[in-house]
Design brief:
Largest sheet of chain B: 4 strands, antiparallel
Mean pLDDT of chain A: 91
Helix content of chain B: 40-55%
Order of helices and strands of chain A: HHHEEHEEHEEHEEEEH
Shape of chain B: globular
Distance between the termini of chain B: 31 Å
Low-confidence stretches of chain B: 9-14, 240-248
Oligomer: heterodimer
Shape of chain A: elongated
Radius of gyration of chain B: 22 Å
Chain lengths: ~270, ~250
């Protein structure tokens, strides 16, 4: 074997080594990813991942305290059409009946752990001192939309009902069923919950106007709740009742909301 | 890992687009989606008005042999299937790992003088930048003693990564959190609004990914065993026919 041949073979073995190496890296990458998918089905591991939610919430409460206000915008920033998502038109019979009567028979119930269970008509809510705010709605899917909301601060409504000291969460019960009617008639009506930090926040309002117009059905008429420092899925639409509770465990999936029961974080400030 | 979860967490099926500004009621500058044509569905990527067919990779790709409309192929996302809530859990957990690591590295670089000693290029090195670019293009790698120091292009790449891309990916990520936006109402305007922040987050992450790929490529070219050993132990062999010398 002459010297040139030896050199050629050496080069070839180097190339082979590189190819082998790149192949190994690619295979390792593929194995890593499929391993990740298996881990996503492993409860104990997912619990470790989910521990970040508690950390996020704790840190957020320190750096953006209870009273920190969400950014408000100028009129020129208002989007021409406010994007709607989720349910656009509840098919539930009780909702449709109320809607045909222009919500004249609508009553917002406030119940649960309160000293004074109450019911409000829309007129009563509209007669209370209102707040108007131009805020940005951020969807978990990534998009944002700016609109002007007018409504009554949730704080005022809760104040009249006088929450009991053991109440820790405010649960919004909604009209809209999310799943197709099933033979088992499982309840899939939307629901959401927030803590008192958000419930008492001045920008948390039960809205009845959007961009100076009566609320469109697709945006939650007659009454959605704005929780401005959290993502879109926390903004309950088509609210039928407000329920004060101490724990969320015995409501539907026990995670505090329709999307939370599907695996989304209860704390959606991120 | 945070990157991989991020690709899924944008949930491109429902909203496969990036915008500039506060919100998303106008045309996106980047969109990845599937479109029906008479010949069947195709994947289409649109970047500032220009359009490319990216079937198989972006917009439309196969998952376990079945064609699906999805922005990024399943081999590039964690989790592989479209599963936004799980992707968010992965993303935010590894975001913490990433930030804690980054801070530790930054503090260490400052206090160990790694930054001043190895990363900041000298004036002479900056003058030699043209030559260095040429050498790289010709795949001419430094030999002998010069191979032991980062070259000037490496230095600049590292500095951009450490002081531009890494901080940007973190700050733009934080700007997407509605609660953190409330830390000081209006601070997100510094990034030109939340949707711009989302775009910057993606751009910076893409830059980091490119840096990593080029870096891996260079390591393979320069000889993996030698490089890995030098990263871990500091022992770098200059040339195979000479005995290994001093550590750095």
């Amino acid at each position: 074997m002459n010297a040139i041949e030896t050199l050629r073979l050496m080069k070839k073995s180097q190339r082979d080594r590189r190819r082998l190496l790149l192949g190994t890296v690619a295979a390792a990458g593929a194995a890593l990813l499929s391993g990740c998918d298996r881990l996503s089905g492993h409860d104990a591991f997912v619990d470790v991942l989910k521990s970040a939610e508690q950390l996020n919430r704790a840190v957020h409460k320190i750096v953006a305290p209870r009273t920190a206000m969400a950014q408000e915008f100028a009129r020129k920033h208002i989007a021409p059409v406010f994007r709607s998502n989720g349910t656009l038109s509840p098919r539930d019979a009780d909702y449709q009946t109320l809607r045909q009567g222009a919500f004249a028979d609508y009553r917002l119930a406030v119940r649960g752990l309160v000293a004074q269970p109450l019911e409000f008509t829309l007129d009563q809510l509209c007669a209370m001192p209102a707040r108007t705010q131009i805020t940005r709605h951020d969807c978990v899917e990534g998009w944002s939309c700016i609109g002007q909301w007018k409504g009554v601060p949730l704080n005022q409504v809760l104040g009249q009902a006088q929450p009991l000291p053991e109440a820790r969460f405010v649960v919004f019960r909604c009209f809209d069923s999310m799943d197709d009617p099933s033979p088992a008639a499982a309840d899939s009506r939307y629901y959401e919950s927030i803590d008192f930090d958000d419930a008492h926040h001045p920008q948390t309002i039960l809205a009845y106007e959007l961009n100076d117009q009566p609320l469109p059905m697709s945006n939650g008429a007659p009454l959605p709740c704005r929780v401005e420092r959290q993502l879109g899925y926390k903004q309950a639409k088509y609210i039928s009742a407000i329920e004060l509770v101490a724990i969320l465990d015995d409501i539907r999936g026990g995670k505090g909301g329709y999307w939370e029961d599907e695996g989304y974080e209860w704390y959606a400030g991120i | 890992m945070a990157c991989l979860g991020g690709l899924e967490s944008r949930r491109w099926t429902d909203h496969p687009a990036l915008y500039w500004g506060h919100d998303s009621h106008f045309a996106p500058w980047l969109a990845i989606k599937a479109r029906d044509t008479p010949e069947g569905p195709v994947g289409v990527t649109t970047l500032v008005g220009r359009e490319w067919q990216t079937t198989g990779v972006l917009g439309l790709s196969k998952v376990d042999g079945v064609v699906q409309s999805r922005a990024f192929p399943s081999w590039a996302t964690v989790p592989g299937p479209q599963w936004l809530s799980m992707a968010r859990h992965w993303h935010f957990f590894f975001a913490w790992v990433f930030v804690i690591n980054g801070l530790a590295y930054l503090l260490h670089s400052l206090f160990s003088r790694h930054l001043a000693r190895d990363l900041l290029p000298t004036r002479a090195e900056l003058r030699g930048i043209g030559r260095s670019i040429l050498d790289h293009l010709k795949f001419k790698h430094p030999t002998g003693e010069a191979a032991k120091r980062h070259n000037v292009l490496q230095n600049l790449a590292y500095l951009i990564v450490i002081f531009v891309l890494l901080p940007l990916v973190v700050v733009a990520g934080l700007a997407m959190s509605p609660r953190l936006d409330a830390v000081y109402a209006g601070w997100v305007d510094l990034l030109d609004g939340r949707q711009s922040a989302r775009s910057l987050h993606f751009i910076a992450a893409t830059g980091l990914l490119l840096f990593t790929l080029i870096h891996l490529f260079e390591v393979v070219v320069a000889g993996v065993w030698n490089e890995v050993r030098s990263v871990v132990t500091g022992w770098y062999t200059v040339s195979a026919d000479k005995p290994a010398k001093e550590t750095r």
